[in-house]
Amino acid sequence: MKPNEIVKFTRTIAKRLKIKTPRVSFAYRNNGLADLKGYQIIYPRQLVLYPIVYQMYYIVHELVHFITGAAHDFKFRCVELYLLRKLNIKPVYNGIYISHLYNLAGEKLYTFNG
After folding, report:
1. Sequence ranges of the domains in the chain
2. Is 62 exposed, middle or buried, given 0-12, 13-18 or 19+ CB atoms closer than 10 A?
3. Beta-strand (E) ranges in the chain?
4. Does the N-terminal or the C-terminal CB of the chain have fewer CB atoms within 10 Å?
């Protein structure tokens, strides 16, 4: 997705989750940021270079922070898994973040090497 499509998808998912839509921007940084106090998401500029399935995961991951808070705890993981499965995405984790993304039929969609 292009930057404007990432913004649009973020807004669409936020509306479906019935949460206030955070402001969205892009910056030259290594990782995304869900700024809960400023109610904004800052995506890394290089997100546009990744496959759509990874972008979708990333968007959901950042939005979950606005539901559960900053911590990557059990509650966060449960909400993230639930929402990703609604999008036919099943992640495999390496700690906090994903190492692989599959569809619900078990087909590998993406392997994260970064």
Report:
1. 3-111
2. buried
3. 23-27, 33-35, 40-44, 90-94, 97-102, 108-111
4. C
Mention every residue, 6+ apart, whose C-beta is less than 8 A from residue 112.
54, 97, 98, 99, 100, 101
At residue 84, the 3 state secondary structure works out as helix
CA distance 93 to 32: 17
pTM: 0.94
Length of the chain: 114
Which pLDDT tens digit goes with each residue over 50-106? 999 999 999 999 999 999 999 999 999 999 999 999 999 999 999 888 999 999 999
20-52 pLDDT tens trace: 999 999 999 999 999 999 999 999 999 999 999
Pairing of strands 23-27, 40-44: parallel
Nearest to 17 by CA among 88, 74, 65: 65
Fold that domain 3-111 belongs to in CATH: Zincin-like (3.30.2010)
Q: Is 35 exposed, middle or buried (0-12, 13-18, 19+ CB in 10 A)?
A: middle
